[in-house]
Design a protein that fits this description.
By secondary structure, this protein is α+β, with helices and mostly antiparallel strands. It has one domain: Alpha-Beta Plaits. It has 2 helices and 4 strands. Strand 2 and strand 3 form a beta hairpin. The two termini are 18 Å apart.
Length: 65
């Protein structure tokens, strides 16, 4: 499943990398752009839920819409 999430609280490229590293290995593909505040995520619902992905991002210190 592919989804795009709006993420608030990112200020620089390092913020993008933090989120990408937190999700690495848990999702098929993740691309985060701090300038647009968007994360494009491709994941297998059998392995991880959208709610779990949002929780990982929140635990990293960011807000997810």
């Amino acid at each position: 499943m592919k989804t795009t999430l709006n993420i608030k609280g990112m200020h620089c490229a390092s913020c993008s990398k933090i989120i990408e590293m937190e999700l690495a290995g848990k999702v098929k593909k993740v691309s985060v752009n701090h300038e647009t505040g968007k994360a494009e995520i491709d994941f297998d619902e059998k392995n991880i839920s959208l709610q779990q992905i949002k929780e990982i991002i929140k635990q990293a210190g960011y807000k997810v819409d």
